[in-house]
Here is the input.
Amino acid sequence: MARPMADKDQRPGERQLPFDPGSRIQAGVTFIGHLATPWRKGDCPKNLTEARNRGGLFQAVVAPDYRAGLEGLVAGDGIILLYWMAGARRDLIVQAPAHRPAPRGVFGLRSPARPNPVALACVRLLEIDHAAGILTVDALDAFDGTPLIDIKPWLPGVDNLTR
Amino acid sequence: MARPMADKDQRPGERQLPFDPGSRIQAGVTFIGHLATPWRKGDCPKNLTEARNRGGLFQAVVAPDYRAGLEGLVAGDGIILLYWMAGARRDLIVQAPAHRPAPRGVFGLRSPARPNPVALACVRLLEIDHAAGILTVDALDAFDGTPLIDIKPWLPGVDNLTR
Here is the structure.
């Protein structure tokens, strides 16, 4: 049975699960590094477009153990970063973002609050320092220090649905 | 210290980590459903393009607890599915896929074997049955039964790097 709608952290029309998905763990992730961004709580862009417009230094920092995994990546590549939105709640199954006319299911939103708080950003690699494990990219909309869990090449043949 | 290169599950030029990332877990995922595909071990397409060409019935099945999260999604939408490659090894940091001329770091490959075995597919939603939690999509290249961990809308303004 769901908790009542009057929850102080909930907007009208939002619905929460009767359990915390974070208490039903079936597999585990490890952090391979972190994101370095200008953003702190209360000052974070709402999305990647806003982050790109505001500008700044945006980097993914890969921990020493995992740096060999960067071999072959070069400046100019399109990449997909997956990162872990550690502070986000996981039980808001229907959400009412301020920019939307009506509430919407979490799977139709890019909200950080989701059953598995994995976020993704498709970005352009501007510069790569293989020895230091530093990837400078064109934009990031997450807090400074956000844990990184994966990097993948962005492939136009499969990742571009407008083709 | 890395184990020797002669590992029987390793190709020439491949390198493995001296530890299993799966033994250094820092956060947990829960399964929100599974993928239903025609593919079994030994008969799985190498990528989404091959899966699309071979054809078949491709579905993401969302568990009852999470179906409210689908509200607002409609046939025709582009979506991103994130799923968990449960059987893949996590320690191959440099890999030598048969289709590549030289070994390459795992973060430059879409291989299922990676420190965090989260795979993603950008696909077209052909049909959605909200009550049954079934999303029929245009292609999937994962084994039948692969655990699903997230669904996100694909957004042309941020997810298309050819723009």
Remarks:
- Chain B has one domain: 30-155.
- The longest helix of chain B spans residues 48-54.
- Chain B touches chain A through 67 residues (CB under 8 Å).
